């Protein structure tokens, strides 16, 4: 497949040595006989040939989309069906932990599985993660109490933590940067479609089938995706001795888990929050100490602190915080302040799901021509621009303004996320790509959790300290949201307090969005491409 020939100094060639390739625009000397030169090689071959020599890219992407749809639909379908499930299982005081346990495990283990995929290959980690997810889904269908449901959801989160970052890494392995953005645009549409299909499926299952099918519906999808990876994703066996930093992995998992618990309990029991923060601080300090002394650290601090990766992950972290504020509080504003129906509120939020894949598609088509950093900067401007429209909302505003703000923020997120992910993947080699991709997924998950906590705290503080209005109780808010009680009047103190609190929340969201621009400006203007190189 390779020709050992000489070329002139202006010919673009691809050097393949020990299974690795790198693109060179000028060749000043004829290489030695042990170096192979590919002239006018097919584009399909110009990927990491050591990792995927015979993979069927199209069918692997189908498997990737199936895995991604399985996780995305699960999130929305469970949200729709869980009220009815909880009513049967009882112990409603544990309701929030059905969701928190999943997110906790997924976030804490994402980075660990990303590193393991760099050591053992992508396929084994994907298959193990899918197996864990499917076993947990089957068990969740047999849950007999809320504690058992929480335990099985925790196990589902472990599987999701293995699947999500690694399937995104597979895309980076299979496609060079110029093509990858287009594929990422397709993948973004999977999340948008899942957000629509999930609630519909959840409603149908709850009303027509046993609720266990909310979880069992994952089984055929997971089996199909696993078969796709087994049959069409091929990796060369890698024989190398690796020292695994189990202590570092354990300390990191404890630190992130305790932080997630603290964030979850931020508005609840202060004792749990305080204890969790103490555990987080202690384990995090020990983790940093361990990683600096480990021969092969589980979390490479040098990798995470690379300027392009650190800047892109910071932007993703902040954007996840802002989007969490949008998805959490915009429907509440449209229903209670603008006094519109839940259907109208849903449409306003759905515009986010229209803008996001649209932005991703535009980014995938334009970044080969204009570059990643410029598109990331454009996306970073769109996000605060949309958030500013929400700041301008008043009780007399049209819901169209709310939907437009949601659309603009979603479009910016599509530009930002696709460009940021490709920047991260293009600045590392194969042996670090799984870890780098996992750092991006981790940043997004942590940003979502912190955004919900921080912006929720702004709302709660404002409700308790609105000038001229006494503290608003949870019962008063519930009556207003359900359309009952004395708070329904246009000039009621409850409605005024909530409007004021949501306004402050949107201002906080705008400030967070503005910080995204600063993070994107920190991305170097000249990006060093290492994705094709392996040291």
Task: Give a topology summary.
Layout: E1 13-17, E2 20-24, E3 36-38, H1 57-89, H2 97-120, H3 122-141, H4 146-174, H5 177-208, H6 213-216, H7 218-232, H8 246-264, H9 270-293, H10 301-304, H11 307-336, H12 342-370, H13 372-391, H14 399-426, H15 430-464, H16 474-482, H17 493-521
Antiparallel strand pairs: 1-2, 1-3
Q: Which CATH architecture of the largest domain?
A: Up-down Bundle
Overall average pLDDT: 77
Largest sheet: 3 strands, antiparallel
What percent strand?
under 5%
The secondary-structure element order is EEEHHHHHHHHHHHHHHHHH
Helix/strand/pairing class, anyone?
mainly alpha
What this model shows, in words?
The protein is an all-alpha fold. It folds into 3 domains: 33 residues, no CATH class; 194 residues, Up-down Bundle (Growth Hormone, Chain: A); 236 residues, Growth Hormone, Chain: A (Up-down Bundle), CATH 1.20.1250. Helices cover 72% and strands 2% of the residues. It contains 17 helices and 3 strands. A 3-stranded antiparallel beta sheet has the order 2-1-3, with no helix packed on it. Strand 1 and strand 2 form a beta hairpin. The chain starts with 12 loop residues before the first strand and ends in a 14-residue tail after the last helix.
Short key terms for the protein model shown above:
535 residues; mainly alpha; Growth Hormone, Chain: A; three-stranded antiparallel sheet; globular; disordered C terminus
Give a short synopsis of this structure.
By secondary structure, this protein is an all-alpha fold. The chain is 72% helix and 2% strand.
